[in-house]
Amino acid sequence: MKIKEILLVLEEMAPLAYAEDFDNVGLLVGDQNAEASGVLVCHDALENVIDEAITKKCNLVVCFHPILFSGLKKITGKNYVERAIIKAIKNDICIYAVHTALDNHQNGVNKIFCDALGLKNTKVLLPKQNFIRKLVTYTIPENVEKVRNALFDAGAGNIGNYEDCSFNSKGIGTYMGNENSNPQLGERFEFVETAEIKIEVTFEKYLESKILKALFSNHAYEEVAYEIYELQNNHQNIGLGMIGEFDTPMDEKEFLTAVKEKMQAEGIRYSTFTGKQIKKVAVLGGSGSYAIKNAIMAGADAFLTADLKYHQFYEAENQLLLADIGHFESERYTKNYIVDYLRKKILNFAIILSEENTNPVKYL
Ligand SMILES: [Zn+2]
């Protein structure tokens, strides 16, 4: 199997188009056309992880955090990033980063976080904006099913828990072809008036070229009439953070104790107790201080995230319990999820969970 075949599975798990604009995801180092020898999945592709990959004969390292984040102008090995990159290149090891592509996925980092805590009825906390487009096209009734199915197969028509969603309305289409035309109905220079169906479907914008290809190769007409609209709707299934509920509410102390145990957190910093029972909980794995207000607005009783500064604890405003459980800890089960996903999709192949602890933060 080639490295690039494994990358396709990773893209299926977390489309790179889901990543935030500031991010640096995908294949960061190496040749995707190389034959794959094994996959090592880790949180951070540090030098010790590259060593582990060499020992375990894995030439693809899948990391959650991109080891290469900002541009490098010199690669001399003067810091931990450059040393890891040099070692990977010298040993023909590819590095692939997932990061916000998986953060934004409905089954990704925050769903894994919610599942670890036992939260139910989960919803995306910050639904992604400017991500949905709408295609409108027109065809003869005999061609509707073919066009619609091709659009669905290309990924159009998914709304929440429903697929194959479309709206179809009857109408009259008109046209007249010039001397170069070859009309499906009627002749050149003949004014044609015919029954047509207008098909409307929505799609995630990164699928546009695939969807247009499906439209053009399945539409009955020589010249396909279509329109694409940019929608203002948020995408309910893609976005950062998640909110869910416990079956049984608990008090704040009990809640924090359970979080500490389930997330294997060594220390939790938290805001003043509100005195409320904890039922609804918002989570955002990694640095999530920007979402405190969203968690309050969503009616969360508690918000779990990481990298909070002193003043940000005041932003809880006694409306929820705000807790910093540690950056690594809040994302700790992500690598296990990636391993499980790859093992399910790629059978009889070495997919290994890294044994290196890459958390740079220690607790006394
Ligand atoms: Zn992170």
Task: Give a concise summary.
This protein is α/β, with parallel strands linked by helices and 364 residues long. The protein has helices at residues 3-13, 47-55, 80-90, 100-103, 109-117, 144-153, 208-218, 252-262, 292-297, 327-330, 334-345; strands spanning 26-29, 39-44, 60-65, 94-97, 120-128, 132-139, 167-175, 192-204, 226-230, 235-250, 269-270, 278-287, 302-306, 321-324, 351-353.
Q: Which overall shape is indicated by the principal axes computed on the Cα atoms?
A: globular
Structural class: alpha/beta
- Could you give the count of β-strands? 15
Rg over CA atoms, rounded to whole Å, is: 25 Å
Q: What is the topology, as strand order, of the major beta sheet?
A: 5-10-12-13-14-11
Largest sheet features: 6 strands, mixed
Strand content: 25-35%
How far from one another are the termini? 45 Å
CATH topology of the largest domain: Udp-n-acetylmuramoylalanyl-d-glutamate--2,6- Diaminopimelate Ligase, Chain: A, domain 1
SSE pattern, N- to C-terminal: HEEHEHEHHEEHEEHEEHEEHEEHHE
| CATH level 4 superfamily of the largest domain | NIF3 (NGG1p interacting factor 3)-like
Helix fraction bin: 25-40%
Subunit structure: Homohexamer.
Protein name: GTP cyclohydrolase 1 type 2 homolog
Keywords: Metal-binding
GO molecular function: metal ion binding
Can you tell me about this structure?
The strands form three sheets. This protein has a six-stranded mixed sheet with strand order 5-10-12-13-14-11. A five-stranded mixed sheet has the order 1-4-3-2-15, with helices on both faces. 37% of the residues are buried. The two termini are 45 Å apart. It is α/β, with parallel strands linked by helices and 364 residues long. The chain has eleven helices and 15 strands. Helix content is 27%, strand content 29%. The chain folds into three domains: 3-99 and 333-353, Udp-n-acetylmuramoylalanyl-d-glutamate--2,6- Diaminopimelate Ligase, Chain: A, domain 1 (3-Layer(aba) Sandwich), CATH 3.40.1390; 109-128 and 239-330, 3-Layer(aba) Sandwich (Udp-n-acetylmuramoylalanyl-d-glutamate--2,6- Diaminopimelate Ligase, Chain: A, domain 1), CATH 3.40.1390.30; 132-233, Alpha-Beta Plaits (2-Layer Sandwich), CATH 3.30.70.120. The mean pLDDT is 97. Strand 12 (278-287), helix 9 and strand 13 form a beta-alpha-beta unit. The chain binds zinc ion. Zinc ion binds at residues 65, 286, 327, 331. The site of zinc ion (ZN) has 4 residues, from loops. GO terms for molecular function: metal ion binding. Homohexamer. InterPro entries: DUF34/NIF3, DUF34/NIF3_bac, DUF34/NIF3_sf, N-reg_PII/ATP_PRibTrfase_C. A divalent metal cation binds at residues 65, 103, 327, 331. Belongs to the GTP cyclohydrolase I type 2/NIF3 family.
